Amino acid sequence: MYVITFTPIREHYGIPFVPNSRYRISELNCAIHGTKVSQHTLGQAVDVKVKVVSNYEIAIWISKNLQFDQLILENYTSGIPDSACVHYSYVKKDNRMNLLTIEARKHASDSSNNGSL
């Protein structure tokens, strides 16, 4: 998962980074109000935030250059580059290429999905 995700992003932007969130045990996921079906609990998701690059730009780049199961731009505010975070998930087989945006702690199932960011 991490080689598939981090290596291309690091190579493209030339910037090392550490994901905000990776694998989560169920108890932690519950404590932070993650969804019950969070791919973080399966080791299939990471939250990406690169300090000097707009999270919107990262989400757009990933959507055009990488395979993914879900790509979610979470809590982005236009004009504030470091707002939001980018949730990226990948499964070994049959990635859905599902693009979502969510706002203010709503779960992905509550958000609109128009197939673009």
TrEMBL record:
Coiled coil: none annotated. Residues 6-70 form the Peptidase M15A C-terminal domain. Transmembrane segments: none annotated. InterPro entries: Peptidase_M15A_C (IPR013230), Zn_M74/Hedgehog-like (IPR009045). Signal peptide: none annotated. It comes from the Bacteria. This is Peptidase M15. The lineage of its organism: Bacteria, Pseudomonadati, Pseudomonadota, Betaproteobacteria, Nitrosomonadales.
